[in-house]
What does this fold into?
Amino acid sequence: MSIFLDLKSKLSKIKDPRVLNRSVYNLEQILVIVVLGIISGCDSFVEIECWANCKKKWLRKVVNLVGNVPSHDTLSRVMSLIEPCHFENAFISWVHKTRKILNKEMVLGIDGKCARGASVMVNPKVCKKLNLVSVFSTDDHLVLAQRRATSTGRPEVFSANELIDLINIRGMTIIGDAGIGTSSFIKKIVTKESDYFFPLKKKFKKNL
It folds into this structure.
């Protein structure tokens, strides 16, 4: 139960963007339900609502839920209002606190992929595919953080550098493909007291 209390504590620091005293559910309840629903395998707000209804008795103890669970429309609307970076920071902080409680070392995969069916409008006439770089816990099957690759040159490498600054990777093993495993990125991993495993392309060998 202490893990759930830590989750509530981290998420309670996020500012509620709604009108004060005009909401049925407090922000902490909604955020905890969303996080636990996603961890349980839900892929949409409709599925999270169904999951919460099945776990209603348990959720009354975890988040002091009174009455019905929030509808999928309420969950979606509230999540669209909060600042993504604040939610991301709170979630990452909780994950690392949980890892310390479990005394667990992680293998983290860093990789960039184009999101299927998604695009970003560069200007009114040009759209580009949405390319996301993710940090993935291979043991927990959990994405810890993401960044959109937007810079010129080697955007995935730039985003990967941002991500390992965001996450405390000390004592972990970082893995990825040869495109991300540049000499500068590997040096940064070493300075953060982490191990790494990257395949090596012949044309990049002279840079190491």
Remarks:
- Strands lie at 107-123, 126-137, 142-148, 173-176, 195-197.
